[in-house]
Design a protein that fits this description.
The structure is a homodimer. By secondary structure, chain A is α/β, with parallel strands linked by helices. Helix content of chain A is 33%, strand content 24%. Chain A has helices at residues 57-62, 65-72, 117-132, 146-157, 181-188, 200-207, 224-227, 229-238, 255-273, and strands at 2-9, 12-21, 26-34, 43-49, 75-79, 135-143, 164-168, 213-218, 243-248. Chain A has a nine-stranded mixed β-sheet with strand order 1-2-3-5-4-6-7-8-9, with helices on both faces. In chain A, strand 1 (2-9) and strand 2 form a beta hairpin. In chain A, helix 2 packs parallel to helix 9 (255-273), helix 4 (146-157) runs parallel beside helix 6 and helix 6 (200-207) packs parallel to helix 8. Chain A is globular, with a radius of gyration of 17 Å. In chain A, 57% of the residues are buried. Chains A and B meet through strand 1 and helix 9 of A and strand 1 and helix 9 of B.
Chain lengths: 274, 274
């Protein structure tokens, strides 16, 4: 693991690392915010999964999580959204290939060689973080858009590994959306039965989430038809899932939206991790 | 004035506008954050001047001012740092020409046609903001690096127009620095007597500032030799200038530094403007 940059931020340190990834078969980059409390001992971790087209950098620079993580004593990990590099299959579309890993393990050629973001997050990067950074084995997970999809699907499928869960404008029902069907078909093939474990709504319907779940969604989001928050709200209500879907008036899909509610989400996780 | 974008942010609106500038002879872009309080009536304005290579966008997306401006009911204006466009003289260096207007009116060819950022900020953009946005005639000013230089020099020379003043890592003594001598020579010519009114240290020595002055500087700033905070600290102490220069341990010159102290600066201005 090589240190790429290190900036003081809110009394802590905003670091960026790169490392060879066995899982993805390429070099991967991630960012880690370490709050001042981490100088005195290990702290809980909040994982933030980013959306389509993003790298580790977008939320690190625009999300505003450091201020609140510093206050509450959480580390924040910002992974990349896909494998990267000249040798990694890509696509001209912004929503397939590099920048669009969808937090799954591809099973089809030509994607299956590198596109293993599910294992990367759940296993490899988790081990790297726990072995190299001053963190406790207490993990919260959140994310935006494709990353909100990743957060919910990964947490529900690995409920013993995560202690708190939230999402910003998640792709909530990808098996029914053009943000989902195209990618699930490309990465997993046309047998839709293999898609269900990558759909937050279907997973919550089957398994629920062990804790309570916070979801924020802007009512002015330009992608509401693709995100399908109504599917998530419906299944949460039908299943009596503890938690809340908050429809935030007038907010769109941008980082101005994420930034506006970063404080609430960090507090949500801190209350459940500390 | 044309609306370029409009995003909901912390209950208010983050807008970007472009407009033809008579002063700069080109189209100019600026960002304006309007807090929720602006829907009920005019609010005071905080001007944020950016540093070398920046546009209106850097501080708007990375500074984190919106959260605190929303809490305290301030509008925040983020101007660009120079004239722009294909017809505007530029230079290959990052610290001269486009992105490096230094908040002065150039008097030499080929710069003097467009490089009039002093008049643009003090007069033209001020009028545009006051005529078109729900703001009071109460103005604070701050900025980072070249923008900190701009904030102090503009406020001290126009003490009747500004009611509060602060700076992040300002270029404090440009007549003695390679961030200054090169640009002042290019834009104003070799007669150094014309440079003094663009040097924060020399201006404070001669005029002082009517109020108190907050300056934050990172002790780990990679540009300390060019910024010369010691010159500013020295003249403030000798002149018994109310205010403070805070040396913040380990912070560098990045927006992680600005973001870390944005709250303090917004509070500083709000306490003096409200």
């Amino acid at each position: 693991m090589e240190l790429v940059s290190d900036n003081r931020s809110f009394g802590g340190r905003q670091k960026v690392f790169k490392h060879p990834s066995n899982t993805c078969g390429c070099e991967m980059t991630f960012a880690a915010y370490l709050p001042p409390q981490a100088e005195r001992g290990p702290v809980p971790v909040l994982w933030y999964l980013s959306g389509l087209t993003c790298t580790h950098e977008n939320a690190m620079t625009k999300g505003g999580f450091q201020e609140h993580a510093s206050e509450h004593g959480l580390a924040v990990i910002f992974p990349d959204t896909s494998p990267r590099g000249a040798g990694v299959k890509d696509d001209e579309a912004y929503d397939l290939g590099q920048g669009a890993g969808f937090y799954l393990n591809a099973t089809r050629n030509p994607w299956k060689t590198h596109y293993r973001m599910y294992d990367y997050i759940v296993s490899e990067l988790r081990s790297i973080v726990m072995d190299n950074l001053p963190v406790q084995d207490k993990h919260g997970i959140t994310g935006h858009s494709m990353g909100g999809h990743g957060a919910i699907t990964i947490a529900v499928r690995n409920a013993t590994l995560f202690d708190s869960l939230s999402a910003f404008a998640p792709i909530a029902n990808p098996t029914k959306s053009d943000w989902g069907r195209k990618q699930l078909s490309a990465y997993l093939g046309d047998d839709e039965s293999s898609w269900a474990e990558h759909d937050a709504t279907l997973l919550l319907e089957e398994h629920g989430w062990k804790g309570d779940l916070l979801v924020d969604q802007g009512s002015g989001d330009q992608f509401l038809d693709l995100l399908k928050p109504e599917a998530l709200a419906d299944v949460m209500a039908r299943r009596r899932q503890p938690g809340q879907v908050r429809m935030q008036e007038g907010y769109d899909h941008s980082y101005f939206f994420v930034n506006s509610f970063a404080r609430d989400h960090v507090r949500w996780h801190a209350a459940r991790l500390n």
